[in-house]
Design brief:
Length: about 30
């Protein structure tokens, strides 16, 4: 199990998911 290598992509995925939700929220609001 790559305990050191795995968290990086997970963090990137979480950041992009949050960005996507923010963009979707802005599109829905406007």
């Amino acid at each position: 199990m790559d305990c050191i290598i795995m968290p990086v992509p997970l963090l990137l995925n979480l950041k992009w998911m949050m960005l996507g939700q923010n963009v979707a929220g802005i599109i829905l609001i406007t």
